[in-house]
Amino acid sequence: MVERGAQLIVQDIVQEARRRAEEILERARKEASSLLREAEEEGKRRAEELLGRAREEGRLLYEERMARGRVEARKELLAKKEELIEEVFRRAEERLRKHVSSREYERDLLRMTVEACRRLGSEEVVVEANAADLKRLREMEGELRKRLEGIRVSLGRPVEALGGVRVRSADGRVELDETLESRMRREREALRVLVARILFEGSA
Q1: Closest by CA position to 117, among listed 82, 144, 83, 81
Q2: Cβ atoms 160, 130 nearer than 8 A
Q3: Mind listing the pLDDT tens digit of every residue in the chain (204 residues)?
Q4: Helices assigned H by DSSP within the chain
Q5: How far is Cα 42 from Cα 48, in angstroms, rounded to an integer?
Q6: Comparing C-alpha atoms, which of 182, 187, 175 is closest to residue 161?
Q7: b/e string for 165-194 if b means 16 or more Cβ within 10 A?
Q8: Is the full-model pTM beyond 0.70?
Q9: For residue 157, what are the contacts with CB-CB under 8 A and spacing of at least 6?
Q10: How far is the C-alpha of 161 from the C-alpha of 182, rounded, in Å?
Q11: Checking DSSP bridges between strand 175-179 and strand 164-169, what pairing results, if any?
């Protein structure tokens, strides 16, 4: 009878041990499954983060290269525009050189001289020009004095200039430079804008 009771106790202990072992194994399986699921989710999340970061870095790199390309393209375009503008000025200067040898220029020279003397606002004016233009002005001196009645005009020394005149008061206090080079230099920026508009109207 005692032996029978002992067997029952042993069976109960074994069954309890098995039950507890199964519970422990089940809990371990659940924990392992949960850990695996969390690990997979973490892996996906990190992969998405890395992919998102890579995409963002790629986008930034693309935008940086595009911006750099646009800057370089704009520099190249501006350089080409500048070359064309300078070519226009070079040709304009060539035409001026031809113009100063024409009969039409003699009329322009007389007009420029009269206008410059009047603008100077002095009663006694000295006119300076290159040697060829001084010779022309001497030949037109009668017409010059007639148009500048009330202003004493004298022809001064020759100066280095393509054309036009430089006028000054007799005491040298006031001077007005109307040589072709000075006029081109003063008007160059406005002419540059005008030439650029004509050449590149509608261009990017």
Answers
A1: 144
A2: yes
A3: 444 544 455 555 556 656 766 677 677 677 777 777 877 787 778 777 777 777 887 787 777 877 887 877 777 777 777 787 788 778 878 888 888 888 889 899 999 999 999 999 899 999 999 999 999 999 998 999 899 988 999 999 999 999 999 999 999 899 999 999 888 888 777 777 777 777 666 555
A4: 2-99, 103-120, 131-139, 141-147, 180-200
A5: 10
A6: 182
A7: bbbbbeeeeeebbbbbeeebeeeeeeebee
A8: no
A9: 128
A10: 9
A11: antiparallel
Per-residue tokens: 117: 């003397």
Q: Encoding tokens for residue 189?
A: 């920026």
> Which amino acid would we find at residue 132?
A
Distance CA 38, CA 182 (A): 82
Cβ count near 65 (within 10 Å): 10
Token couple for 57: 């870095």
**HSE toward the beta carbon, residue 89, CA cutoff 13 A:** 20
* The dihedral formed by the CA atoms of 184, 189, 190 and 195, expressed in degrees to the nearest 10: 90
